[in-house]
Design brief:
Layout lengths: L1 H20 L4 H14 L2 H7 L2 H9 L4 H18 L5 H7 L1 E11 L2 E10 L5 E11 L2 E6 L3
Antiparallel strand pairs: 1-2, 2-3, 3-4
Helix pairs in contact: 2-3, 4-5
């Protein structure tokens, strides 16, 4: 009887360890990121957002010479948009945000996100872009 109990306990411990060690899915990362923006939680934001790459995505249409000059300013503005009275944070607080399905292609992922204005009912649809590095998913693009 004690061997059987030991084996059952061992299997349960292995199952819990496996479940806890799994990397959160891109969909979960996006949901956690949105929650961090809602709470203006800078520590959590930095766990989900690759701010350098996010800034590069915003500036990719600019010539290299202009991009290098404005990069630090734009990066700081984007960060502030997610915090306190930042434009993105305030805008998102007036929306119902629905995180839909994810599409994973190797180390890249797209997550569908729908923003519904609570007053007008108008919907905006976008896809968050993520990449996987060192077993973690990082957001590098989402409508702000």
């Amino acid at each position: 009887m004690s061997k059987r109990l030991f084996l059952v306990c061992l299997v349960l411990i292995l199952a819990v360890t496996y479940t806890c060690s799994k990397t959160p899915s891109p969909r979960v990362v996006v949901m956690d990121f949105i929650e961090a923006v809602n709470k203006a939680d800078t520590a959590s934001l930095s766990l989900y957002l690759d701010l350098d790459r996010f800034t590069q995505e915003k500036l990719k249409e600019m010539p290299d010479t202009q991009r290098a000059r404005v990069f630090p300013l734009v990066k700081e503005q984007l960060w502030q948009n997610f915090l306190g009275t930042g434009a993105t944070r305030l805008k998102w607080q007036n929306k119902m945000i629905v995180v839909n399905k994810e599409d994973i292609q190797g180390d890249q992922a797209l997550v569908e996100v729908t923003f519904v204005d609570q007053k007008t009912g108008l919907s905006e649809y976008t896809k968050a872009k993520l990449y996987k590095k060192d077993s973690r998913w990082w957001i590098y693009s989402i409508r702000d």
